[in-house]
Amino acid sequence: MEKQIIVEIEGSSVCAINCKSSSLPDQQPHLVEPISEPLHRLLSSSLSAGTQRAYAADLKHFRASGRDIPCPPHALAEYLAELVTTHAVATIQRRLAAIAKAHRALGHDDPCRAEIVQATMSGIRRTKGMAQREAQALQRDSLFAVLERMGERPIDIRDRALLLIGFAGAFRRSELVGFDYRDVEQVGRGIVLHLRRSKTDQTGQGRKIAIPHGRTRWCPVRHLADWIAHAEIEEGPLFRSIDRHGHIAQDRLSGDAVATIVKRRVEAAGFDPTTFSGHSLRAGLATSAAMAGASSWKIRQQTGHRSDAMLARYIRDGDMFTDNAAGAVL
Predict the structure, then answer these.
(1) Domain ranges of the chain
(2) pLDDT band at 133, cuts 50/70/90?
(3) Which pLDDT belongs to residue 204?
């Protein structure tokens, strides 16, 4: 028999998983259902939907391998070794984190702390390396080339506004599609977008991002206004689905849709779509601004990064030749 339990993930966050009743520790019956509906809602809200799905999938894969919780350190190390040829290092590390949290929440010793598991992870990092595939930055001139190829259909008007706002605000996909009409504040020098929640702001403290009037024909403020007027948006989601007949729906675009739009539009402009993603807009602003001489703290004000070290990951190789040390002496 299986029962659903609530397993602590990332400190105060939680994830619901299925475990065999035989594996439930007698000393912790409070971890087993039933729990009240108000408590369930709060526990469910303590972790983003994306992370919940990822951790649940990790634990499902772990059990599908024939292992269970609790798991001896040697068996866990063997499981990690099986993942080396098929999974990225980042995925393996996340899977290990989910397994560790599940053990601790159930009152078991954490096998991930064992020397054999730690040494196995070290071997994986040394063997596979830690470099992650990065989305190519959609820099200013390339973005303009993409915009030049777009027409005046409803989907073109929407996509033009989405690309320009995503670039100007250096927004993540989830942030971009999360905006509502009420989040747009008109000011004299442009607009201020109220970002009410983001990946690094799960408690919803929010922050404001200024989008100034552009100096070119590709003004993000003007093209966003064009889209709002065309779609007759007065409330609700800012960026919405459009069917193949050009009918604008009331539902919000998904984050995956942003990636699809970026790939489709760059391909139409003659670029290789496989090197771009929804993150290309965010990296594009950071890289383009750095190449234009913007200070790191002003770029961070737009991107929301808390340190130059974190920002550096988003400034792509296009900035390597700006003020290059070798260029100053040769």
Answers:
(1) 2-128, 140-319
(2) low
(3) 57
Respond yes or no: is residue 208 known to be catalytic. Answer: no
240 as an active site residue: the answer is no
Chain segment 81-94, per-residue pLDDT in tens: 999 988 888 889 99
Identified catalytic residue from 101, 172, 173, 223: 172
Residue reference for tokens 């159930």? 106
Tell me the per-residue pLDDT of 226-275, one tens digit each, with 9 for 90 and over.
999 999 999 999 999 999 888 999 999 998 999 999 999 999 999 999 99
Catalytic residue, chosen from 199, 264, 298, 306, is 199
Q: Which CATH class is domain 140-319?
A: mainly alpha
Find the DSSP H helices in the chain. Answer: 37-45, 49-64, 73-83, 89-105, 115-128, 140-148, 154-168, 173-178, 220-231, 255-268, 280-291, 296-303, 308-312
- In the set 95, 140, 314, 316, the catalytic residue is 314
**Annotated catalytic, 244?**
no
Is 305 tagged catalytic? yes
Q: What is the largest CA-CA distance in the chain?
A: 73
Specify whether the backbone of 106 is left (phi greater than 0), alpha (psi in -120 to 50) or beta: alpha
Neighbour tally for 101: CB within 10 Å: 22
The whole-model pTM stands at 0.66
Per-position DSSP letters for 173-236, written without gaps between them? HHHHHH-BGGGEEEETTEEEEEE--BTTBTT---EEEEEEPPSSS--HHHHHHHHHHHHT-SSS
* Domain 2-128, CATH: 1.10.150.130
314 is catalytic: yes
The answer to whether residue 126 is catalytic is no
